[in-house]
Design goal:
Four copies of one chain form a homotetramer.
Chain A (H helix, E strand, L loop, with lengths): L6 E7 L5 H11 L7 E8 L2 E8 L2 H4 L2 H7 L3 E7 L14 E5 L2 E11 L2 H9 L10 H13 L5 H9 L4 E8 L3 E6 L8 E5 L2 E5 L2 H6 L3 E5 L5 E5 L2 E5 L10 E2 L1 H6 L5 E2 L2 E2 H15 L6 E4 L5 H11 L7 E3 L18 H5 E3 L1 H4 L3 E6 L6 H12 L4 E6 L21 H4 L2 H8 L3 E4 L2 H4 L10 E2 L1 H4 L14
Helix pairs in contact in A: 4-5, 5-6, 9-10
């Protein structure tokens, strides 16, 4: 699996202080949303300070750094960036000075009118030092602020010009502001811990710091915290339930998060059950690809009556610095990352559950690994439909040319990966995996149809 | 869980070369046996070179380093060391010059006659630069070599003076030698990949590099590889099945390893089933503490008929640099490390499966986490008997004063950790968890009775 | 001595390529002008890439980094920054996207109308991500570019709004532009090496890369290199010889540089000679404080007839990581940094030559060190007048309250530092130290009178 | 110049504590004697602790490290090692456990009977983990200690078997012991600071920490400090003045050190004067190659009456990480390391003073640099005789094949380096450069005749 979410957000207003430390733990819980860089900005006595760098949360921050940041307000960010970006410059939160003082801006998502916005600003003399949407958003806010009496109103006006996916945290010396795009692509929720008010991309991060989930922001909503008072602006809310990225349920989000009222773990389990019903297989054991295939595998096992088995063990120590075996080695990456449990698979017919097939390479290697361990048959079942189109809204699902399912039939894919049979979750079933979700969905990567018109491409520094 | 295995070994003889690279991948698969330091020594044209440092395998070695090491033979080591050790000096393999040239020595285990050995050597003028048993073993071999014609004979003679747990790899410019102590405490197995001969602490490491498990070394056996010929010396083999550490099955080893013919995963599953039969509970769902409690939880669920549920999610990013929350934070370490799945646990009676209770602190926090997530009842079942005695044979199970079960009754422990009920695997059941194992066991930490007489304590540099 | 220059610049246009490597060596030669951070931006096929970080040139760049940067044009920067700056964000060159594509901007100096400029831009909606003047200059250029047909014209127009000290390098995908402020505070010269055209803060950097000094830029001049053609814009040149910082001659610049036609080494030697004539002393030996006092000490010795002696040796290994002795140590920083040559000083009357007295602490310690080594008398002679006013034009000469000479009489200073006598170079003599210089001078730090009106203070992010 | 001294030593006994910090500053002053690795071992309440690593003193130690080491006794070491050594293992001081407890051993020098010693120990069963002489010396002491009542007696007995150059510091939990080899090759002196007793390779290190030089150890002498009492053993002292390495005066030692009563700076100045008398030149200015040629240049200028000029400036920032220009660059290393002062050299006849010519490459480049800067003539004068033989006693003066003067005549060398004339200090004059020195000299590298018979070569791990 090689699809990445692009960011995670965490913010807190807490007069009790030490906010950077809470953000640190919140970002730890959101690390799965971005492992490339991270940052925290904090306010102490109306002064902004920040620290950010490339690396994991646990590698970037030291206790001394967190003590220095302190904070009665703080926002943090974890980021995934596609290779080739000039990396350190793009770390977030973006911190800046503008006409009314200082701001910190962090966002999760992807705008689709980047080029038009950038050009418009440039024709007014703007300079851009990063390739992030955050810088565009910051400019938009700064320019609206000239006409608006309050920063939250500037955010509100700026949002009218932004098209695409964004969940947003903006921090001024006195206010913490959270916002979601009117289409509702990316999650953002609000929590409380005593007097403190918190925002997080996923509810698992609220749990991690001992806060309670209060509610999720509505698509288009702006929530402002000032002196402990929480107010909402709903001027940009459209009259729709929005279009939550459905792949958040299938893969991106942590299973212990709740998004739009729907438990992620339950959605995956249900996807597995629906997969069992629509794409059955005759088999002796259901094996999930760890970690993200395990929930669906349980669901498949329950619905099919085929026993669930732990057939694959994941090596917990493969990190960024892992030296991938090269051509000349007889070692194979998949064998180092996954170990097959011979006792569980030898002589068995296996239903193998994974959550996606991107290029097919990994699937082929896992199937071969299971056969080497003695599996008699391997039936691959995927708990999502085939990817046939790219994502423009905050993930790196690639162009059609790199998506196996956009170019080959199911039979061709099956031949390529060497399974005994192959089945994907049907599109119709996909829409049933989140029955508790009080929202609509974006399933553009599975359908090629998006809630927003055709996106442009980005200028590069 | 805070019990640690102390080491992992991997060695290969392969005329095809690039052995250091294979050892690198083998050590990756054994990283769970030691995360403090690691090292690789390799032979090229009879010349020894090596690299070792504190840190994880993935952090210590670079591609350039592996290329430099190359090797038509190589041995590697991962190490866990108790805090306070002078660390870098104690990394292994130990490399040395002696009367017959060079040697590399790596070992897994703990001697119990260290003090006597050390004193005896010192009275012959020896100097010790580390606090490792490897240095003692190396001295013993070097001194025997003066009287023995072959290095493997020197190893054989040296072993007669060593008391305790040790699996051993010794590499001279021409020979790769593996040995296990006569009591058979620690595992060590042999594999093949084409012409290559390999040794590893666990079979999962053989699988990782595409090798097949040939057999495990017998207690007391010495196996020598020279020019592709494998010969065995069994002079030190006693007429017993040995005393394999039973906690290897319960916790230390990787579930996809096979030890003495017994699948580790199956042993854990069986422990869970035996636990269900001997320590039943009325409940709605069985939840394992990830990762090591999951296999037993499945076994418990199957045997009891209570559904298995994923009630806890582990944060995959907690590493060595994690800043543990201190007193003043409202965050709790357990909440950052584990997330509870509210949907799975709310309103439910839960059987919580863990593999050990050392001090009780972690258990208390997990139970409290589940209650916060709405669990109605939490019944803790432990897939091993209570620890009542320390381990002298290669793990850091501590002294009685730090073992809660050595000081409190089951009821008192239960009160302390706040479970609704508490049950441990009975000792009788413990001996049934590895029916396929062709060996005897050491269960000293659960009984206070060891295969070897009372151990001494170690001198410190 | 604790006065710092704030930056050094180096740029090259060379169709032969590998420009980043030449900049690397050029920056090495300019490292004395800034040791806090450094950066290089390069153009390859009209694409901009860059690398910058905190640290010395030798620590920041690797061969791989230089190879990646390559370049048929490149600009580089070394920076000194006062403590407390958010450091990494302020590294240069600043690289940016604007209406016409990409730019890299590097500058040496300090603007005095920063606040007014910043406010003006902010009222047009600008955001500032750094606290550097470079960002202001970049904005000014970007805004003028909307009205100007060529980037060099935009630089020309932008300069009309900039007040203060700045030498500037601007690089677009096709052009390399160099400029000096109309007051001529900071040096900037042009060189050639074959077809290549180069710019550097000091001529020593041209020599370092085997280039020849062609000429220095006039105050207010803009020089553009495009396709090997060099053109000049002199629209901003005032009809004056400018006001070169006279402290460049006394301390900042490297002795092997030539500034405005005047050899720096010769200027220092002459300062020493003038000091001997105006502030004579009866003594046995002239000792310079290494390294910057040595040239003047030679001049003093020659002019006075008193022998020159090497009385102090400097420890060449004191770097950024040196742990300064704290209160409890009996060690003294000065003794570790400087060693006295007992044979040279014992029993002697010494004329000690230094180039400045800022707070007096270091002078007191050096004098005490010489007395401990047996000096009979120590007469301190300073090769510059007393500092009585701060510098607003690119150095960190501090406010009056921290300048000993702004608060105490010569006698009081002498008493404080414990010399037998103390003499500074008279102001009248100061103006004679650079007879070959075809320029006027800024001596504001010695007189309190500046070529530009009273400066404002800076806003901080 | 590319000749390196191999080590520096510093030790202190001070009941006032914080000894590691004093050693830190002492090692800073001795850094010129070894820049590859360093280490400090300290005693607190009879417990030994240590820290050592590759790198400069300023990079290896942190304040926290020094605080942890503390110490009422401490010894430190700086080391230069030839490339290819397994580096980290060879850092010193060597710390060890032996029959009587713990020892730390640090040494400066080179044994010549290494191979015989090593073999003898190996035939008694010894193992060697490093390639340092320190380990051999430690073994010798440990073995003698079995027969001797006091560690200093064991040192005394061990010394009888050691042939070669060594200055030695040995620290037990109660005693600090210093010793010099009976031939007196390497310096070692004793100092006092209040109650504290100190030892250092050079007196400049005593000055750096505010201690007074008491005396230098005699060749063969052993000095022991215990509870503040200083005692000497002279059993190994031969009836000769010893053979101090004369190149310590010419190049290795710091100019502010005094060795055997002779100021190093004065020796160099005298070498310059003797050079002027024996190898005169018609010239306009005397220019020294910085830093080590400057003292001799002054002496040459004084004796010849030709003015001394600063014609070359050294770049102070060239460190270990400097990327040397490769073939394809038009830059030359020498131009980056040295800048020529055009005003000083243009049109002049120059006497260039350097302290040695090893391979001739650097001399050729410097001469070419001076000619480019306009020098009319360049007469190279070297303040030492030509190297014609290697050094076996603690420096890396290489084998004859790499010494230009061992293979070419003066005329041939002159042709090769491109000077107008070339002169070396005559051997007869060499013996006059240290008139105050109360010792004999080793001049083996200039004569091929050594105080000790032909040395063997070393075994490698």
């Amino acid at each position: 699996m090689s699809i990445h979410e692009e960011c995670g957000l965490f913010g807190i207003w807490d007069p009790g202080g030490d906010c950077a430390r809470t953000v640190y733990y919140g970002l730890y819980a959101l690390q799965h949303r971005g492992q490339e860089s991270c940052g925290i900005a904090a306010i102490n006595n109306r002064e902004l300070s920040f620290y950010k760098d490339v690396g994991l949360v646990g590698d970037v921050f030291t206790p001394a750094q967190l003590d220095r940041l302190g904070g009665t307000m703080a926002v943090g960010h974890v980021r995934y960036a596609t290779t080739g970006d000039d990396r350190r410059e793009n770390t977030q939160p973006l911190t800046l000075n503008y006409v009314k003082g200082t701001l910190a801006v962090a966002h999760n998502g992807n705008l689709v009118n980047t080029k038009a916005l950038r050009t418009a600003f440039e024709y007014r003399g703007a300079i851009f030092q990063t390739t992030t949407d955050s810088e565009l958003i910051a400019y938009a806010i700064a320019q609206e602020r000239l006409r608006c009496g309050r920063v939250e109103d500037a955010v509100c006006q700026a949002m009218k010009g932004l098209r695409g996916a964004y969940s947003l945290l903006v921090m001024s010396p006195q206010k913490l502001i959270a916002a979601r795009d009117p289409w509702g692509f990316r999650p953002l929720c609000m929590g409380r811990r005593g007097n403190a008010v918190l925002f997080a991309s996923e509810s698992c991060a609220l749990n991690a710091v001992g806060a309670d989930l209060v509610r999720e922001l509505a698509p288009g909503e702006i929530v402002t915290v000032e002196n402990g008072t929480v107010t909402a602006i709903r001027e940009n809310c459209k009259n729709t339930a929005g279009h939550m990225c459905i792949f958040e349920y299938i893969y991106f989000a942590r299973p212990d998060s709740v998004i739009c009222g729907q438990s992620v773990h339950e959605a995956r389990r249900l996807a597995g059950a629906l997969l069992a019903r629509t794409r059955p297989a005759e088999a002796d054991v259901v094996v999930g690809v760890p970690d993200s295939g395990l929930d669906a595998a349980m669901g498949y096992a329950e619905a099919s009556g085929i026993p669930y088995g732990m057939g694959l063990v994941k090596n917990r120590y493969i990190g960024r610095t892992f030296i991938t075996p090269d051509q000349r080695s007889r070692e194979q990456a998949v064998r180092i990352k996954l170990g097959a449990l011979r006792n569980c698979v030898a002589g068995k017919r296996i239903v193998l559950i994974d959550d996606s097939v991107v290029r097919g390479t990994t699937s082929r290697q896992i199937i071969s690994l299971l056969r080497e361990a003695g599996a008699r048959e391997v039936h691959l079942r995927v708990s999502a439909p085939p990817f046939i189109a790219p994502c423009y809204f905050g993930t790196d699902i690639p162009d059609r040319e790199h998506l196996i399912a956009a170019n080959l039939s199911i039979e061709e894919i099956n031949a390529l990966i060497g399974a005994d049979s192959l089945g994907f979750l049907p599109l119709e079933a996909l829409h049933q995996i989140a029955p508790d979700a009080a929202c609509g969905f974006c399933d553009g990567c599975f359908t090629g149809t998006y809630p927003l018109e055709s996106p442009g491409t980005d200028a590069k520094i």
